Amino acid sequence: MSYKELKSGTDIRGVASDLGGKAVNLTDEAVYDITSAFALWLAQRNGVATEELTIAVGHDSRISASRISAAVIKALGDRGVQVLDCGLASTPAMFMTTVDLNTWGAVQITASHHPFDRNGLKFFTREGGLESGQLSEIVDIADKGDFPTCDGATCKQVDYMKQYAAGLRSMICKAVGKSETEKPLSGYHIVVDAGNGVGGFYATDVLAPLGADVSGSRYLEPDGMFPGHIPNPEDKVAMQSITDAVKESGADFGIIFDTDVDRAGCVDSTGEEINRNRLIALAAIIATQGRRGATIVTDSVTSDGLKTFIEDELGCKHYRYRRGYKNVIDKAVELCEQGIDCPLAIETSGHAALKENYFLDDGAYLITKIIIELGRGRDINKSIAALKCPAEEFECRFNITVENFKTYGLRVIDELDAYVASKPETFTVADDNREGIRVSVKDGWFLLRLSVHDPVMPLNFESDRVGGIEEMKALIRPFFEGFDGLDISSLK
User: Range of 176's domain?
Assistant: First the structure.
């Protein structure tokens, strides 16, 4: 097997446990070879020997974490690398080891919100997470499998999460003008739902030491079987869990993280979700304070109401780009390099990266910025009250059943473009269309795009009135029925 089969965008992902009934392909050998290749690639990139490298290793709460961590550490040790074993850690914290611990790179063992039997590898350099092309280079080295053995390696256990949490506490104290001993969050009741992932530290090591009441928090203990619910702010069951926690405990605020804490969502004191477009609006307020004219980069499925909020209420610019958190971040970095003030890149999934924080998608960092606003007495609901939210949202996914799915999918998009152009009285293509085709109709819009890696075409709808999505479906169903290579059963 070529290790290319394990590459998923900028990560390595695979089946890591047979408890889910599927054959394991993220084997010890695969982990060893790919990690060895990362060490060689990193050394070559920096013009040093592998023995000069220091690399941090961490993992989330998945059941396969210990096995994979052992294979990663052995691979690095055999290459002569000095290893800092950080144990249970968030993905953003592992990047921060390159800043705070001066490591050359880091390896995080995680598969984000994917099922319990999956796992993966995420690599960092001092410049951030790897690009897809960089990971391809590493996989090519791994496939060759020629790894020289070196002596002199060491492995040191480091509780970096304590240092990382202390940094977040320091942010809050500095921003609200109080010391830790003054308990700046005293009087606030804040609950956390970690979904049995890594995020429980935020309640115990960040909020509680600053005086917050965290009673009523849920699923703080790491458990790789995720018995409470899938740790994913986009999951309805997960969001209902944190909403219930806020209501049942009478909390002022609720926080939910995904498994490895690179994403987050929240809930206000009434139990209303601050997620997706509402989270982006709140993050935009925080990122652009005193920066009118700044640009906010989002993914392609953000609402028309959000664009109006960013541009009319905040006096900023909304750059709607492509799906994929790395795409959004890379575009923000590119705009900054062009001299454009771009303080925030954020995806509706909850990936949020601020320029002030290395453009690192860090759920805990974003939540800390929101907690600071609470600590300053800001009414968050009032802040985003002007955001117009859609009455309805819906996504269906068309499977492409022909072999060359990319060519076929692009053809569907081209023909849809021609179709809507032929009906200008009904359809209008968006003027900031940068992925697939986004079409405005009366009181709403729909967006058809092609998945980068899979034979799937997601179709997103939003309507400003109840019943609008069914009308949109009826308008475009005849067009899609003309394609034998599309399974459009989800539209019907």
Answer: 160-273
